[in-house]
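User: structure tokens for this one?
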Amino acid sequence: MSHSKTAFQLERLILFSDAVFAIAITLLIIEIKIPHLLPEYTTAQVIDTYLELAPKFLGFFVSFFFIGLYWTVHHQLMGYLVNYNPGLLWLNLLFLVSIVLFPFSTALDSEYAGSNFISPFLIYTLNIAFSGSMIVVLWRYISNPKYQLSEGLDNRLFVQYQQKRALTVPAVFMGVFLLGLLLPFHSMSRTLLIAIPFIMRFLKRGYDRKMKALELKAAAVPVEEEVIAREE
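Assistant:
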């Protein structure tokens, strides 16, 4: 296949994926229904009615953030592509399945937020795990030199760092869910989700340290070779 045809097919893949992301992120707000206000409602009753929507809006913003986060990662991944194959198309479709499930899992979890039901949050957690796992698979598949799909992914440390980032969110969500089983009010454990950005920063620092060590090691090799040559 010519370069122009390959570029066209890759553009179709990216545009289709972007459309799925756009539809999924839009459906999040559609799930929030306009409250029914009666003329005889007092100000307090109106406020209470609006406050009942708070869990739904919280779920909306959280899922909007995560869908946006997965879109940025997907956008980054697609930037390395120079070719495609059927395996990539199917893996990308599986990843998009996890994205279109977010409106449902978000609505379900928001509907029963604060209740004693744990299954809605479990379903949302599994949705997060599905997305994160597919990102890991895509990083591994696209960076695999055997398939010749990408350029600029020769740095295995970078790929491993991205895979660790992708697994961080599902790991924290699963930990929060398991901790919630031990607490009398399992919704209290969700406050631990704020640990995600701190873990991400820790992973970034670890990656930067490893890269700096490799750069120093690479810079030291020519100096050592020069010293040895002078001694000879």
